[in-house]
Design brief:
Shape: elongated
Number of helices: 17
CATH superfamily of the largest domain: P-loop containing nucleotide triphosphate hydrolases
Radius of gyration: 30 Å
Strand content: 25-35%
Length: about 500
C-alpha cells in the first residue's frame, strides 16, 4: 500500500519522521482490489443499503482490519441492545479477535445521548469522543437512524458539514451507515460531502439470493466500477470483483512458440501444436473425449515442469481421480507434487464472479501456465444477464493471456449427429484463438468419434476430418474420413463398391 510521512514529537521534544499507511484494508482482498488497495484515510464514507444487506458486518470487518493494522477504532451504535449481544453476533466471524475489544476497538452505545440531547449536541459528543479516544476510525451505526431519531430540521443539517470537517482535521476516517431511500441518496447533505459512497444490495433472482456491491463515488482515486458480487460467510463479507472491470492492459509479449496438447497426432493437425498463451475451444458431443484431451494437455505441461489448473464444474475431485487413474495419468499430472491443481465448483447456483475470483487467485498464487475449464457451458448458464457472457469470457481469457497462460475451454454440443452442429449461441467462436471439434459420425454401421481442427488463428492447419481413437490408456487420431457428408445419419450408408480413392484410408 502507498505510504506517506508524518512528523511525530518524541519524548525529548524533537520531531522524527515516521511512516503511516495512507490506506488501510477492508479486511477482504476482493474489496481491497476494487478500491485499488483499500480505504483511503482521513475521509468520510457512507455505506448505504437495505435491512439485511450487510452494512453492519462490513463496518465491523473494516473496524477489525483497521485495529489489526494498529489503528484506534471508535464504534458508535444507537441500536438499543447491550454490547454483549452485539459481540455475540460477530464472535463467530473469522475477522473477530476478542483481545481487540476494549483496547483498539471501543464500542459506545449512544442511545441515551440521542434520547437526552439534540442533534447538534450529539454531533459535538461524537467529535469530542473521537478526540478524547484519539480515534483513527469512527463508525456511526446508523447515522440515518440518528438523524431520524432526533427529527433533524433542515436548518440543522449544516451541522453535518461541520462535524465531518472537524473529524477530517483530526485525521479521522468516518464510516456513516444508513438505510437510505432513493430520494435521500439524491438529497441528503451527507452524500454531497462524502468522499466515498458504497451501496449494498440484497435481492432475489428467481429462487436464488443475490448480493451485490457498488462503489458509486470515491473521491481522488481510481476504483473498479459496476456491480460486484459478494457473499456473507463465516469469514465475514467476501467480495468477488466483476471480471469485466479488471484492468485490460496488455502484459505479455506476442509469441509464435508452440506447445504440445499432449497428443502428438493432434499437434500435427495443428501444424506443430498450440501457440503459447492462446485460447482454444474444444467443442464436442457428450463422450467424445473433451475432458480426456484436457487432462493430456495438463499432463504434457507437467512433464515440462509447468503448473496447470483443472477447473471442473461437472466432475468432483473423486470422480476426476477415477478418470485419471483409468488412463494412467495420475503420476504424469503431478497432483501429489503440486504441478496440477484442481478447482471444483458445483454448477448449482454458480456465481461466475466467484468462479473467476478463485481462478485468478490460484493462477496468481501458484504461477499457473496451463488452464482447462470444463466446461464454459456452466459459466454461460450461470450468467444472470445472457448478454454479459461474451464480455465476461473475453475478459477472463484476456486476463489469462496476460499472465502467459495457455487455456483450453471445453464446451458440450448437445447434438450427437447431424449436418449442422451449433458451437455457441453467441460469440464464443470469435473470442477464442483456436477451435477443435469432436463429434460422432456413423461409418460402415458403427458409431465412431471424429476430430477436426476448424480454426487456428495466425497459422495454417490440417483441415481434414479424422477418426479419434480412445483406448488402452491413450488418445490418438487415425483414419481420415472422406465424403463424410454422405455418411451421416439419415444419408446413404458406406458403399464397399465406391472406388478406393473415395473410401477412408489410414494416413501414417
Amino acid at each position: 500500500m502507498a505510504e506517506q510521512s508524518v512528523n511525530v514529537i518524541s519524548s525529548s521534544g524533537s520531531t522524527t519522521p515516521q511512516k503511516r499507511l495512507s490506506k488501510f484494508s477492508t479486511g477482504d482482498a476482493g474489496f481491497d482490489r476494487i478500491l485499488s488497495g483499500g480505504i483511503p484515510r482521513d475521509s468520510v464514507y457512507i455505506v448505504s443499503g437495505s435491512p439485511g444487506a450487510g452494512k453492519t458486518i462490513l463496518a465491523q470487518q473494516v473496524a477489525f482490519a483497521a485495529a489489526k493494522a494498529g489503528l484506534n477504532v471508535l464504534y458508535l451504535t444507537n441500536v438499543s441492545e447491550p454490547h454483549s449481544k452485539l459481540i455475540q453476533h460477530i464472535r463467530n466471524f473469522g475477522f473477530y479477535e476478542d483481545g481487540l475489544i476494549g483496547s483498539s476497538i471501543r464500542i459506545y452505545n449512544i442511545t441515551s445521548q440521542v434520547r437526552d440531547k439534540g442533534f447538534q449536541q450529539t454531533l459535538d459528543f461524537v467529535v469530542e469522543t473521537v478526540r478524547s479516544e484519539k480515534a483513527d476510525l469512527v463508525v456511526v451505526d446508523s447515522f440515518r437512524g440518528l438523524k431520524h431519531a432526533l427529527e433533524v430540521k433542515a436548518q440543522e443539517r449544516g451541522a453535518i458539514f461541520d462535524m465531518t470537517a472537524r473529524l477530517s482535521m483530526m485525521s479521522c476516517t468516518s464510516l456513516l451507515l444508513g438505510e437510505y431511500t432513493a430520494l435521500e441518496l439524491e438529497t441528503d447533505s451527507e452524500f454531497a460531502i462524502a468522499d466515498g459512497i458504497i451501496n449494498l444490495w440484497h435481492a432475489t433472482s428467481g429462487p436464488q439470493d443475490r448480493r451485490t456491491l457498488h462503489v458509486s463515488k470515491m473521491r481522488g482515486m481510481s476504483y473498479l466500477g459496476g456491480e460486484h458480487s459478494f457473499a456473507i460467510t463465516e469469514q465475514g463479507l467476501t467480495v468477488y470483483p466483476r471480471q469485466e472491470s479488471m484492468p485490460h492492459e496488455p502484459g505479455y509479449s506476442a509469441t509464435n512458440d508452440r506447445i504440445s496438447t499432449g497428443i502428438p497426432s493432434i499437434d500435427t493437425m495443428m501444424n506443430g501444436g498450440l501457440i503459447r498463451c492462446s485460447s482454444t475451444l474444444i467443442a464436442g458431443s457428450p463422450g467424445t473425449g473433451k475432458t480426456l484431451l484436457g487432462l493430456h494437455f495438463l499432463a504434457a505441461g507437467a512433464a515440462l515442469g509447468e503448473r496447470g489448473l483443472m477447473v471442473s464444474f461437472q466432475e468432483n475431485p473423486a470422480q476426476l481421480a477415477l478418470r485419471v487413474a483409468s488412463f494412467g495419468l495420475n503420476e504424469s499430472l503431478g497432483f501429489d507434487s503440486g504441478l496440477t491443481h484442481v478447482l471444483y465448483m458445483s454448477p448449482i447456483e454458480l456465481n461466475i464472479d466467484e468462479a473467476a475470483a478463485y481462478i485468478r487467485r490460484i493462477v496468481e498464487d501458484h504461477r499457473i501456465r496451463r488452464v482447462v475449464i470444463d466446461s464454459v457451458g456452466e459459466l454461460e448458464h450461470a450468467v444472470e444477464h445472457p448478454e454479459r457472457f461474451d464480455d465476461f469470457l473475453t475478459s477472463l481469457v484476456g486476463y489469462l493471456r496476460r499472465l502467459e497462460v495457455t487455456t483450453l475451454l471445453l464446451r458440450e454440443i448437445t447434438q450427437f449427429f447431424g449436418m449442422e452442429l451449433s458451437i455457441s449461441s453467441r460469440g464464443l467462436s470469435y473470442i477464442v484463438d483456436n477451435i477443435v471439434l469432436l463429434r460422432y459420425i456413423e461409418w460402415d454401421g458403427y458409431i465412431r468419434r471424429a476430430v477436426a481442427v476448424l480454426k487456428i488463428r495466425g497459422s495454417d492447419h490440417d483441415k481434414s476430418l479424422r477418426e479419434l481413437l480412445i483406448g488402452d490408456g491413450s488418445i490418438r487420431t487415425g483414419e481420415r474420413y472422406e465424403r463424410v457428408a454422405g455418411l451421416m445419419t439419415g444419408m446413404p450408408r458406406f458403399d464397399p463398391n465406391v472406388p478406393d480413392g473415395l473410401n477412408p484410408r489410414v494416413d501414417q
